[in-house]
Amino acid sequence: MRPTSSRSSHPLWFAVLVALVIASLLAGLGLRSPTPPDEPRFVLAARHMVETGQWLLPHRGSELYAEKPATFMWIQAATYKMIGNWNLSFLLPSLLAALLTLWLTWDMSRRLWNRQVARYAVVALFVCIQFGLMAKRAQIDMVLVGMTTVALWGLVRHLLLGPNWWALALAAFAAGAGTVTKGVGFLPLLMLLPWMLWRWRHPQAAGPGRSWRWWLLLPAFLAGTAIWLGPLAIALLQNPDPHLQAYAKELLFKQTGTRYANAWHHHQPFWYYLQVMATLWLPGSLLAPWLVPAWWRRCRRADPRYILLLGWALLVLLFFSASPGKREVYILPMLPALAVAAAPLLPGLLRRTGVRWLLLIYVLLLATATLVVGYGAVHGDGWAQRNAIKRAIDPWVLPQVGWWLIGFGAATLVVALMLRLRRAGLAVVLTTVMLWAMYGLGAMPALDPYSSASLIMDKVRARIGPDAELGMVAWREQNLLQTHPQATDFGFKRPVAEQWEAAARWVAQDPQRRWLFVLDKAMSPCAEPSQVIDIGSANRNNWQLLPGTALHADCVASTHGVVTGGDEALDSDGD
What we know:
The chain is 61% helix and 5% strand. By secondary structure, it is mainly α.
């Protein structure tokens, strides 16, 4: 398949839109700290690598972190080494991966169709809510999407526009690197299945045929996995440490095959991802009633571009739906391929009155919702007030967030009134730009002291004084991350009773200077109740401080009657 010519070209307005898109994704970079559920965990491991020089095995406090390979944490740590600021460096990998994904989406569409279609593909991907949300969060998934899109780009170059054996090798390498970033990075290679089916039905079609070079797939894929598996294998051969062996076993078996086939959390029904696509892929999902029949007709005409892109997306959807454990971010790698497949149809769809009305209603509803929530936040009532109370957010913070929401809602209404029905598609793009600018510059920085736990840890530092030492029992990653210097911990997955035993021994060495930061539900009965300090709430948990002099070490050594509420939560991994 060769790209078709484009009769209309509007490079100037597209360049302006690209600048706005990049600016909205950059907005707020460096203005917030890592927030749960996943960001503090990865930054904590990356910071440990930088501070100790031990890069092979990621740590969560004093324990090995065996839920994910080290690759993503390497990227964050390397970014910090170049920049020297954690609030900048922890978000930068996701942002760069998002920009790379947008460029690859543009280039794939340009090569498969033309430049006009490529422009529609880029804006279609950008306006989907989940894409922007993950571009502005420091989770593995956006980096994984960047790697999987590189692999798809290479496969499309080879299978549809080739043969291009170097592109095939790049695709396999990217899939291998994606696999050691998050175990499902191999999924782009499933595109070979719909391609083989299409070639079987159309044996005379142009494209790569039989060649020994197909064997490049395996060594290139293994080379990608060797980024992390190579150093790990060398360490396993040279070091008989049972902790290292247990780490490798946990990660290579339990956290991959067992987690997929017999997941122990995030259980959802088979149809769960249809709900995800209908909500988190707004406003793109609104066009499904028109896109799906059009895609079906083109697949029936055996257009290989649609067969490969949509066939691969369907296989990925079935792959994740078959697992009992599901999270909304798992299917994000499908989105760029679907944006490419939708782009050729968008110019025609945007000329339909019904489609324009649907997009305009989406913009108006979004504006109305933010105005209502913003008004409640400013006046201290409604949904915003109830959630602020749950999260222990100070009342004076709500009006700050509320005015940002009101400003966004008002600006969105102005855009809708100016562009009206005729340019509803452009209204959606500009609304998305303003949404992520408001999110990055206003909402997240205002809520950051509460969501990142920096406020409560500042209170802890002020209470215990600069010369004291802090230990943690039944802690969360964001609490440990916000300690400077890093507090002493006694394990994360370790049973709380054992944490108390280790904490008692630590406190006994210098009880006058040492304090314990404890989840209220896990406070020991061996603590003197009158000296327990309720230091505050963060992330819907209540926290207490205990002076070292208020813990009876002999009691801890002789009893196991510790309230262990929250052990299951401590043992879960949300990414």
